[in-house]
Write a structure and sequence with these properties.
- The complex is a heterodimer.
- Chain A is mainly β.
- Chain A has one helix at 6-12, and strands at residues 42-46, 56-59, 66-71, 86-90, 101-103, 108-110, 117-119, 125-128, 137-143, 148-155.
- In chain A, the strands form 2 sheets. Chain A has a 6-stranded antiparallel beta sheet with strand order 1-10-9-4-3-2, with no helix packed on it.
- In chain A, strand 7 (117-119) and strand 8 (125-128) form a beta hairpin.
- Chain B starts with 12 loop residues before the first strand and ends in a 19-residue tail after the last strand.
- Chain B folds into 4 domains: 13-116, Immunoglobulin-like (Sandwich), CATH 2.60.40; 122-201 and 424-509 and 519-529 and 561-626, Rossmann fold (3-Layer(aba) Sandwich); 214-417, Dimethylsulfoxide Reductase, domain 2; 678-809, Barwin-like endoglucanases (Beta Barrel), CATH 2.40.40.
- In chain B, the strands form 8 sheets. Chain B has a 7-stranded mixed beta sheet, with helices on both faces. A 6-stranded mixed barrel of chain B has the order 26-30-27-29-28-31. A 5-stranded parallel beta sheet of chain B has the order 11-10-9-13-14, sandwiched between helices.
- Chain B is of the alpha/beta class.
- Chain B is 30% helix and 17% strand.
- In chain B, helix 2 (171-185) runs parallel beside helix 20, helix 2 crosses helix 22 (597-603) and helix 9 (304-317) crosses helix 13.
- The chains are: A mainly beta, B alpha/beta.
C-alpha cells in the first residue's frame, strides 16, 4: 500500500482512503477525481429518465453499494449534464450506514436512524447530525452523444467497508 | 491501489475509554497494534470479528476514518489505534456521536493538526515564549507563590480551575489541584472553569436534600412522561437521548415497563419540552412521536419559575400531589405551596403561554393514569435553567414540583440536571464563604497578584468576557514589562521581578492547558497538560457511573497530568519553605509525593474522610484494578460494596425516601416568581433582540480540538447566528452575511443563519466560539450564589458586510430534521 504523509493527505484533500499514518483526519470533503484511477466507468441513467426532485437509485462501484442520482433542476457545484444539475451520492449514511432519503424541497439527504442531514448542494456536507464525515459523493460524467450519465469515481468514503473498492473479493 | 482502513489484528491490545466530551460518557474500546501487523478482512483475521469481505450492514459497528489515529510513543514505537464505540456499554450501546466518533482524529501526532499541542513548559521571553524545563517552571511558579503568600496572603493567589470529570478533569486532577489550592495554599479566591465564583450550579437542589444526579439513564426508558427544561439533548447529551429517550417515545420500552410493574397502566409516552426555541431536539421528537405526544412550551425567556409554579398550583388544585410521600419524606410543603401559588391565568400572562397549553402540560405530567396509578415523570434540566434567569429560584421551583408529585427516588422519575462535562469531584472543602467571592470582579478591580488558569479558556467562556480579558491583559502587561527588563537573570531574580510587579497592580498569569488557547496568549507561564488516553483517568457520568479511562499512549513532549503538575508546584514551594527554615509552611505543602495519577486517586477518592468527594464514604472500595475489571459499565456511585469480584453500585438515589438533609426529609423551598435579575433586565429594556446562546453539535466547548479539524472548523468558522427570516430581511441580512451584535458589555461577530423556526426578535448564537465568543455580550448578572445568567443577553444586530468568501461553501439549510 502506498504510504502518504498526513500533510500530503490534507493537501490532496482525500479522494480516496489512504493507509497507515495518514488516517484519522476525520473527513475531508472535496475529492480530486484525478487521484483515482481504478474506479469503473458505469452508465447509470439516460437523461430523459430523470425527473427533477425524484431520486434515481443505482449501485456503484459494485452491487453492494446503493446510491442515489439526483436531478436538482438548478445548476449546482460539481453538477454535470446539460443544466449542470445532476449529482449522485451514496445512499448509506456515513455515520452508521442507515439508508438515506432525499428531501427534494431543500435538497438534503436525511437519515432516519440518528437524524443526520446532509446538503446535496455543498458536496454532501453534514448540516446537522452525528456523522464525522460528509456523505460520499459519486463522481459523474455526462456523455452528450448518448445523453447518458456515467459514474466514474467516489469522493469520500463509503460506509461499511475497509476501502471503497474493498469488497467482493477485492480485499 | 485503492487505500484501505487498517484493521486491528486479533492480537491488538484493547483498553477501555470513556468519551471525554459530554456528561453521557459513552463507552469506547481503543484497539492498538504496531505498524505492519494489520489484521485481515475475514472475521477471524481481525479483532472486531467483522467480515470485511462484504458490505457491512447498517448499525454493524463498522469503523470510520475519524476513529483512527496513528501514534508514536516516546520510545519511537508506532501504533495504529482505532477508538470504536462499545456495543456492550449500557450507556451508548454501540452508538457514537459526532464528537465521540472523531476520537482518533484528536490524538496527538507530530504529523497531524494536533501537532500544535503544548510539548514543554514555556515562559514569556521578549515578545514571545521559550521552552523551559519543568524544574525551571516549578521554580518560577513556586518562588512567585511564596512571595505572593508573604506579601499578599493566600487570597492574592487567584485560581480559575476546572471542577469536572472527563477531558481536562477527573477525580485524579480535581483532587490534585484542589489539594494545592485549598489545603496547601488556602486561597478562597478560586473560581470554577465556567463561572466567576466557587459555587455549585445546583445549590437549590442540594439545599433541598436532593443531589442533582439522582436517577439512572434507564429511567428515561421507564418514564410515562419526559419533562425537559432548557436543554437540547440531541446536540448536547446525544446518546442518552438517542439510546434511552427515543426508544421510550417509540414505545420500545413498553414491555419492560409491563414486566417491572405488572398491572400498572402503560400509556403512550409523552414529552414536554420547555424552551423558548424550537430546538433540533423538538424537531426530532415531533418527527418520532407526532404533535399529539410532544408539547413544546415556548415560553417567554426567563419565565420558567412562573411556569413551574403555575403547573404546581394547578396540579395541587386537582389533587394530583403525592400526599403520602409529602407527609412521610418532606418538610416545608405548606409554606412552599403558599409562596409558589400562581393561577393559570397569571402564569399565562407571565410566560406568554396559552392557559390551555399549561393545563395540558400539567395533565400530561401529573394527572394519574387511566388505572389511577401515579404517572412517572422524569424532570430534566440543563443550561437553559442553570444559566437562566435566577438559577437558585428557578431550580427550587422545579424541584418543588418534582417532590410534590412524588417523582424523586422513583423509577421512571427523578429531577436531574442533564449535565455538561462528566463529573469527577474530590477536593478538600472550599475554605471560603457562601456566597463565594466573585473572582472575575476581583481581577477587574485590581485585586490579587497571581492568576492561575487551569484547563479553561475564560476569554472565550466567561461572562462579561470583554472587560475580563482587558483587565487580565492590562494587568499582565505590568508583569510582562518587568520580565522583559531582565538581563541574564537567574530564576530567583525573575521571580523577584515578577513579585515586585504584582505588588504594583500587575498580575502574574499561569495557564495550564493542552493548547496555546486565546487565554494562553496572556500567559507568562504556560504549562502542558496530558489528556484522556495519555493518562489513566476516572470520571462519573450523568447517572453517576464511575469508569476508568485507560492510558494507551504517551503525551506530547513532557506534558503530564494536571494532578502531577499540581504536585510539582507544591513540592517546589515546600522545598523553598524548607530552605528558609519555615517548617510550618513547608508542612502545608506536604503530601504531594505522588509518582502517578493512580497515587493521586488513592490519596483523594479512596480517602474520603473530611473531604468533599462524589465517591462518597465507600470510595476506598474503588481501585484501579477493580475499575479496570468493571470496564465501560463501571459502577454507579455511591458504591455499596465489593462482592464476588464485583463492585456493587447504586442505581438511583433516594429510593428509600431518605434525603440528604440532617433529618432525612427533603426540604421544600419557597420560590415565588419575582421577575428578572436586574443587570440583565436593563439590557432587556434597551436592546431589541434576545440573544439566546448554546451548543451546536459540530463544535465542542471552546473548540480547543475542533478548531483544528477541517470537518468542524469549515462548518462554522464563525459562530452561526439563527435569525428569523423576516427580521433578517428587514435588516438587509442574507445567509452567510457577517453580522455584529452589540450591547453595553461588548460586541461580537457571527455568520447569519436565517432559520424559519427562529421567532421574531429572538436570536440563537453558538456559545464560546473560538472566533468570536458571545461571553463578550453577557452581563454581570448573577443569582444569589454568583451563578451567571449567560442566557440573559439582549443586543442590537446589524449587517457588517456581505458574506465572506468562505461562507459560500457553508450550508445554511435548516438544522431541524423534517421529512417531507
Amino acid at each position: 500500500m502506498e504510504q502518504v504523509s498526513r500533510r500530503a493527505f490534507l493537501l490532496r484533500s482525500g479522494g480516496a482512503l489512504v493507509s497507515g499514518a495518514a488516517l484519522g483526519v476525520g473527513g475531508a470533503a472535496n475529492a480530486t477525481a484525478a487521484e483515482v484511477t481504478d474506479y469503473p466507468r458505469e452508465s447509470v441513467a439516460h437523461l430523459a429518465s430523470l425527473a427533477v426532485g425524484v431520486p434515481h437509485p443505482f449501485t456503484y462501484p459494485d452491487a453492494a453499494s446503493p446510491c442515489l442520482l439526483l436531478r436538482l433542476g438548478r445548476p449546482v457545484a460539481a453538477g454535470v449534464g446539460p443544466q449542470g444539475d445532476l449529482l449522485a451520492f451514496s445512499a448509506l449514511c456515513p455515520h452508521m450506514g442507515c439508508a438515506l432519503s432525499f428531501d427534494a424541497q431543500q435538497a438534503r439527504l436525511l437519515c432516519p436512524c440518528h437524524f443526520s442531514s446532509f446538503d446535496c448542494e455543498q458536496e454532501g456536507a453534514q448540516i446537522c447530525g452525528q456523522a464525522t464525515q460528509p456523505v460520499a459523493r459519486i463522481q459523474l460524467a455526462y456523455d452528450s452523444a448518448s445523453e447518458t450519465v456515467q459514474a466514474v469515481g467516489v469522493a469520500g468514503t463509503l460506509y461499511g467497508r475497509r476501502g471503497n473498492l474493498a469488497v467482493g473479493g477485492q480485499a | 491501489m485503492q487505500g484501505q482502513l487498517p484493521l486491528p489484528p486479533p492480537s491488538a491490545q484493547r483498553s477501555a475509554l470513556v468519551c471525554h466530551h459530554c456528561i453521557v460518557g459513552c463507552g469506547y474500546h481503543v484497539y492498538r497494534w504496531p505498524f505492519g501487523s494489520e489484521g485481515g478482512p475475514a472475521p477471524h483475521e481481525n479483532a472486531l470479528g467483522l467480515d470485511f469481505r462484504q458490505q457491512l450492514p447498517a448499525l454493524a459497528g463498522a469503523p470510520v476514518a475519524s476513529m483512527y489515529g496513528a501514534i508514536t510513543n516516546h520510545d519511537g514505537a508506532q501504533f495504529h489505534t482505532l477508538t470504536l464505540p462499545d456495543r456492550e456499554c449500557l450507556v451508548n450501546r454501540g452508538l457514537y456521536s459526532t464528537r465521540g466518533g472523531q476520537h482518533g482524529a484528536l490524538l496527538y501526532a507530530a504529523e497531524a493538526p494536533t501537532a500544535v499541542r503544548l510539548h514543554h513548559p514555556e515562559r514569556l521571553y521578549d515578545e514571545g515564549r521559550i521552552a523551559i524545563s519543568w524544574e525551571q517552571a516549578f521554580d518560577l511558579f513556586g518562588r512567585v507563590a511564596v512571595a505572593t503568600l508573604e506579601g499578599g496572603g493566600a487570597d492574592a493567589l487567584l485560581f480559575n480551575c476546572f471542577d469536572h470529570g472527563g477531558g481536562g478533569g477527573g477525580f485524579e486532577n480535581t483532587w490534585g489541584t484542589g489539594k494545592l489550592m485549598f489545603k496547601a495554599i488556602g486561597s478562597r479566591m478560586v473560581r470554577i472553569h465556567n463561572r466567576p465564583a466557587y459555587n455549585s450550579e445546583c445549590h437549590a437542589s442540594r439545599d433541598m436534600g436532593v443531589g442533582e444526579l439522582n436517577n439512572c439513564y434507564q429511567d428515561a426508558q421507564l418514564a410515562d412522561t419526559l419533562l425537559v427544561c432548557g436543554a437540547n439533548p440531541y446536540e448536547t447529551q446525544t446518546n442518552y437521548f438517542l439510546a434511552h429517550w427515543l426508544p421510550n417515545l417509540r414505545g420500545e420500552s413498553a414491555a419492560s415497563k409491563r414486566a417491572q410493574w405488572p398491572g400498572e397502566a402503560v400509556e403512550p409516552t409523552r414529552i414536554i419540552i420547555i424552551d423558548p426555541r424550537r430546538t433540533p431536539t423538538v424537531a426530532i421528537c415531533q418527527q418520532v412521536a407526532g404533535d399529539e405526544r410532544v408539547l413544546h412550551l415556548d415560553l417567554i425567556p426567563g419565565t420558567d419559575t412562573a411556569l413551574f409554579n403555575g403547573l404546581l398550583t394547578y396540579a395541587l388544585a386537582q389533587g394530583w400531589e403525592d400526599r403520602a410521600f409529602i407527609n412521610d419524606h418532606t418538610q416545608g410543603f405548606a409554606e412552599m405551596a403558599a409562596a409558589n401559588r400562581l393561577s393559570l391565568e397569571r402564569c399565562s400572562e407571565i410566560t406568554g403561554l396559552p392557559v390551555e397549553k399549561i393545563r395540558r402540560a400539567a395533565q400530561w405530567a401529573y394527572q394519574p393514569k387511566a388505572d389511577g396509578s401515579r404517572r412517572r415523570t422524569l424532570h430534566a434540566y440543563e443550561k437553559g435553567l442553570i444559566w437562566g434567569n435566577d438559577n437558585y429560584r428557578t431550580q427550587a421551583a422545579l424541584v418543588d414540583l418534582a417532590l410534590a408529585t412524588g417523582n424523586v427516588g422513583r423509577a421512571g422519575g427523578g429531577v436531574v440536571r442533564l449535565g455538561g462535562h462528566q463529573e469527577g469531584y474530590a477536593r478538600p472543602p472550599y475554605p471560603g464563604p457562601r456566597p463565594a467571592p466573585n473572582v472575575d470582579r476581583a481581577v477587574i478591580d485590581g485585586a490579587g497578584r497571581m492568576l492561575t488558569i487551569w484547563g479553561t479558556n475564560p476569554f472565550q467562556s466567561s461572562a462579561n468576557a470583554a472587560t475580563l480579558e482587558r483587565a487580565v491583559r492590562e494587568r499582565g502587561q505590568i508583569v510582562s514589562a518587568a520580565l522583559r527588563r531582565q538581563r541574564h537573570a537567574t530564576g530567583a531574580e525573575l521571580a523577584a521581578a515578577v513579585a515586585e510587579a504584582t505588588a504594583q497592580g500587575g498580575l502574574f498569569v499561569t495557564v495550564v492547558d493542552l493548547y496555546a488557547t486565546r487565554t494562553a496568549q496572556a500567559a507568562h507561564l504556560l504549562l502542558p497538560a496530558a489528556q484522556v488516553g495519555e493518562m489513566n483517568l476516572t470520571s462519573m457520568n450523568g447517572e453517576r457511573r464511575l469508569r476508568l479511562s485507560e492510558r494507551f499512549m504517551d503525551p506530547p513532549g513532557v506534558a503530564t497530568p494536571d494532578c502531577l503538575i499540581a504536585a510539582g508546584m507544591a513540592k517546589r514551594i515546600r522545598a523553598l519553605y524548607q530552605e528558609r527554615g519555615d517548617e510550618t509552611m513547608a508542612q502545608r505543602f506536604a503530601g504531594f509525593e505522588w509518582q502517578s495519577e493512580e497515587a493521586a486517586f488513592d490519596d483523594g477518592f479512596r480517602h474520603p474522610e473530611g473531604i468533599d468527594s462524589q465517591g462518597g464514604a465507600n470510595g476506598a472500595l474503588a481501585t484501579y484494578e477493580r475499575l479496570r475489571a468493571a470496564g465501560n459499565n463501571g459502577v454507579q456511585l455511591p458504591i455499596q460494596g465489593y462482592q464476588e469480584g464485583r463492585l456493587i453500585g447504586t442505581e438511583r438515589l433516594y429510593s428509600d425516601g431518605h434525603f440528604d438533609t440532617p433529618d432525612g426529609r427533603a426540604q421544600f423551598l419557597p420560590a415565588p416568581w419575582d421577575g428578572w435579575l436586574a443587570e440583565a433586565a436593563a439590557q432587556r429594556e434597551r436592546y431589541p433582540f434576545w440573544v439566546n446562546n448554546g451548543r451546536v453539535n459540530h463544535l465542542w466547548q471552546t473548540g480547543y480540538h475542533d478548531r483544528l479539524l477541517p470537518f468542524r472548523a469549515t462548518r462554522f468558522p464563525l459562530p452561526p447566528l439563527e435569525v428569523n427570516p423576516a427580521d433578517a430581511e428587514r435588516l438587509g441580512i442574507a445567509a452567510g452575511d457577517l453580522v455584529e451584535l452589540a450591547n453595553d458589555y461588548g460586541t461580537m461577530l457571527a455568520l447569519a443563519y436565517p432559520e424559519p423556526d427562529a421567532k421574531p426578535g429572538q436570536l440563537f448564537v453558538q456559545f464560546g466560539h473560538f472566533a468570536s465568543p458571545v461571553g463578550r455580550l453577557v452581563s454581570e448578572a448573577v443569582d444569589r450564589n454568583v451563578v451567571p445568567y449567560y442566557k440573559g443577553v439582549w443586543a442590537e444586530l446589524r449587517r457588517v458586510e456581505v458574506a465572506p468568501a468562505y461562507a459560500t461553501r457553508i450550508s445554511f439549510k435548516s438544522r431541524r430534521y423534517r421529512t417531507a
